[in-house]
Structures are given as structure tokens and as C-alpha cells.
Design goal:
Elements (H helix, E strand, L loop, with lengths): L8 H5 L3 E2 L5 H34 L7 H23 L6 H17 L2 H9 L3 H20 L3 H5 L2 H14 L7 E2 L1 H7 L7
Antiparallel strand pairs: 1-2
Helix pairs in contact: 2-3, 4-6, 5-6, 6-8, 6-9
Length: about 190
């Protein structure tokens, strides 16, 4: 973390995210696999819980829709808990977790983008680094999601900002999201 920014309460809690090189093909293959595992877990749990609910509490030949619906809801909650507290740390979930963290980090920047833009216009180094991180992150996200058309619309903006950083002697390899940058840009009033 940079020494010239005053630390905030949240910067101690927030984990710094780092963009890592990852093959888009492998990413998509592994995230499809983890999605399949999660879907199968949900289906099996829904069948088991609904079946048990009907068997234990249902009426033979009666309307057991509520029990089936309740079983599906319980299975959904159980699946969410399993993903969050058991599957999340498994190696087979790593690409999906990385993708989620990347998108979450980009959303943090998007939420303050009007401040970032104002900071960049004012020549603030933290804002310029934050915008470069955002550009690198968005580029990777679009590559991972195979969305080249959305990326092609941003290439000019990305290249212009990179050239500006190079002209100022600022490192263009901003692969880490420093939470203090987000705090720092909030001081800039949004442009109108």
C-alpha cells in the first residue's frame, strides 16, 4: 500500500485484488465445470429434500406442492451455503472465484467512476492508476467472457490513457487494486 495515502478503516479490512494472467479457454472450461457441479448439487438436494418432505409430511394422493416448493427453497439455501463455506475454497472453484472477485473489484471502481474521471482530469496519480487498473481488469473480463465487441469499443480510450501514463512516467502495469485509491478519488467532485 502506498505510504502517501492516509489509511482508512476499510482499507485494513478490504483485501487487495490482483489481476493474474489466465487463459480464457481454460477459464471458461473450468467455470463451466464448476457451474455444472453446483447445478448438480442443487438438483440432488432439491430432489432429496422435497422427496423427504413429501414422504414425512405429505399426504398420499394429496396436493404436496407447498412441501415440494419448500424443499426446493431449502435446497437452494443449502446450495448457497455449501458454495460459500465449502466449495469456495476448493481448487476446482478457483477460476469462478477469481472471475467473481475480478467483477466485484471492477464494480467498486465503477461505483466511483465519476470521481475517477474528475481525478484523472485533475491529473491525480491515484485516479490515473485506478483508471488503468480498471482498463486492465475490464480487458481481462471481456477476454475471459469472450466479449470482443464490447472490448473493441473501449480500445481507443484504453490506449489514450495508457499513452498519457507513459508520458508522465507512471507504470502502466497497474494490476493491483489498492483500496486507498478508491478512498483518495472520492475527494474529487464529479464532473458535470
Amino acid at each position: 500500500m502506498s505510504a502517501h495515502f492516509a489509511p482508512s478503516f476499510w482499507s485494513h479490512i478490504t483485501v487487495m485484488f490482483e489481476i493474474k494472467p489466465i487463459s480464457p479457454e481454460i477459464y471458461r472450461q473450468q467455470t463451466r465445470r464448476s457451474t455444472l457441479y453446483i447445478a448438480l448439487t442443487f438438483i440432488v438436494l432439491a430432489l432429496l429434500v422435497s422427496g423427504l418432505a413429501v414422504m414425512l409430511l405429505g399426504e398420499a394422493g394429496g396436493d404436496n406442492f407447498r412441501l415440494n416448493l419448500g424443499g426446493v427453497i431449502v435446497a437452494l439455501i443449502a446450495t448457497i451455503l455449501l458454495v460459500r463455506y465449502l466449495f469456495w475454497s476448493q481448487p476446482w472453484m478457483a477460476p469462478a472465484v477469481y472471475g467473481w472477485q475480478l467483477k466485484r473489484s471492477l464494480m467498486k471502481v465503477t461505483n466511483v467512476m465519476h470521481h475517477v474521471t474528475a481525478g484523472v482530469m485533475a491529473g491525480d496519480v491515484a485516479a490515473m492508476k485506478l483508471l488503468r487498473f480498471y482498463h486492465l481488469g475490464v480487458t481481462q473480463m471481456y477476454q475471459l467472457d469472450a466479449n470482443s465487441s464490447a472490448l473493441s469499443q473501449m480500445v481507443r480510450e484504453i490506449d489514450l490513457h495508457k499513452a498519457r501514463l507513459e508520458a508522465l512516467g507512471i507504470d502502466t502495469g497497474q494490476t493491483r487494486l489498492d483500496p486507498q485509491w478508491i478512498d483518495a478519488v472520492k475527494k474529487f467532485a464529479p464532473l458535470k
